[in-house]
Amino acid sequence: AHTLNLFIKRLSKSLLLSGRGHCSEVFDDGNVASGLYVIRPDGAPTSLSVYCDMNNGAGWTVFQRRRDGKESFDRSWVEYKHGFGDLFSPDGEFWLGNEPLHHLTSQGTYDLRINMEDFEGNQRYAEYKNFKVDDEQVK
Questions:
Q1: Which of 33, 38, 86, 128 could bond 112 through an S-S bridge, CB–CB 3.0 to 4.6 Å?
Q2: Which range, 3-7, 54-58, 74-78, has the best average confidence (pLDDT)?
Q3: Among the listed ranges 4-8, 67-71, 89-93, which one has the minimum average pLDDT value?
Q4: Domain ranges of the chain
């Protein structure tokens, strides 16, 4: 199977961690296991469940996972705004949501990392600096 994961990372025990705004803070607090965490980004109206990838020596917030195409990404703007898919299953495909991404990336400076794996298991990644998702009002 091929995999596409998109991550963001801020530069600078139940899994409910109040006061944490992103996965980097979760990692910095000593939580080094990848998995689901509840965070509340600055300015966000509610807390949200996110998958934190704690590999590569940092906490990365996974905002898209594609594995086998079971989840259709042919969606409406409203669905992309709020998010869709199965965040809770290890093999689930999902989009976290443009609005949660806006709240996450408005807290500071972020890098974007794209991890890819093809059908033969070859892995590659790309990293981009200064990643941000604006509010939908910004054109």
A1: 128
A2: 74-78
A3: 4-8
A4: 3-128
pTM: 0.82
- Buried b / exposed e over 115-131, threshold 16 CB at 10 Å, is bebeeeeeeeeeeeeeb
State the CB neighbour count (10 A cutoff) for residue 54: 17
Class of domain 3-128: alpha beta
What one-character-per-residue DSSP string does 60-111 give? EEEEEEESSS-S-----HHHHHH-EE-SSSTT--EE--HHHHHHHHTSS-EE
25: left (phi over 0), alpha (psi -120 to 50) or beta: alpha
